[in-house]
């Protein structure tokens, strides 16, 4: 759903014609078959949320291809795996269900897919009551990590992110880390010691 702000700026900067062409040709309120095919191949996404005051948070999610599960063209669902216990993204969704997801194919097509929508949090034991039972059972049987909850997203907007400025990357085997303890403990930046030194 386009905002009043973007329409005001389109008029201010004279981009209304270009914007309208994009709206008409590229924006959907659901996933097209081509978008669904693209989504099933993705292994990562960038997740944008905000609390009720509009304070924003950006996070990253990853999994095997298809970790974002398509229920139908209007709804997708993904698992929130056990993490650091902060639950920042889920907490924001509880206050403000509007979210943005960006999927980028860095390895083949250098193209992205935006999905904006409304999120609902589903606890694992309630999954079979909230989505079709066969789908729920399949998800629970195939997930490989400990799931804190599931996020069901009703799609409001789906549109392309063009390839301009998207780098072409190559997958490689993970390098041996010089500091295994630091990276494994989630303290790559040494923040714990830094904060201790500040006191």
TrEMBL record:
Top-level taxon of the source organism: Bacteria
Residues of the Pyridoxamine 5'-phosphate oxidase N-terminal domain: 32-159
Pfam family, one: PNPOx_N
Membrane spanning stretches: none
Signal peptide feature range: none
Family annotation (InterPro entries): Pyridox_Oxase_N (IPR011576), Split_barrel_FMN-bd (IPR012349)
Identification of the protein by name: Pyridoxamine 5'-phosphate oxidase family protein
Organism: Thermoactinomyces daqus
